[in-house]
Amino acid sequence: MEAYRLLYPMRTYLIVAGRGSETNVMAADWVTVLSHEPAMIGVAISPKRFTWGLVRKYREFVVSVPSVEMLDDVWIAGTKHGPEKLRETSFDLVPSRVVKTPSIGNALANLECKVVDERDYGDHTFFVGEVVGFSYSKRAFPEGRPDPGAGFLAHLSWTDFVTFSDRTYRPGECR
Asked: Is residue 158 within 8 Å of 67, Cβ to Cβ?
């Protein structure tokens, strides 16, 4: 057992990097919010990944929030390498609002980030991105709050994924 697996299930995201024919999408669980003001997100990417080189080269990336309906494409993005794998997916790459890296139009949300820092930790590089633009599905985020029934995806273990139920719990309700 690897210790980090004790943190699962974790939300699964898609990291988009690059431009034009060089654009790549990878699946990533190791994504976290670092700051509210300014909005900053961190993502850990192995230097072995094609996306790592694109983030380094262009100094920007997009964090896309996939739905359970996108699971087959998420699996391809997480298990195959290089931009050619995108021909096997149904990702709808669309222009982002601020950055030149495309967003995924059929994702539940996209957060456009400019790299403001990077540090190597063990076998991964932790890229910190300031969120400079975003887009989202009003169906998935009615009134600015996530709808648990929208199909947000979480990685449970190697080949298993889960989504959230429509039931929302509040403190004191589970005793």
From this structure: no
Looking up tokens 């699996």 gives 75
Size of the chain, expressed as the number of residues it contains: 175
The mean per-residue pLDDT over the stretch 159-168 comes to: 82
Query: Structural domains in the chain?
Result: 9-159 (2.30.110.10)
> Measured between alpha carbons, how far is 118 from 127 in angstroms, rounded to an integer?
4
Sign of CA dihedral 110, 18, 117, 42: positive
- Which residue bears the tokens 């976290």? 32
Mean pLDDT of all residues in 73-102:
97
The strand pair at 60-65 and 13-17 is best described as: antiparallel
User: For the chain, how far is it from start to end, CA to CA, in angstroms?
Assistant: 32
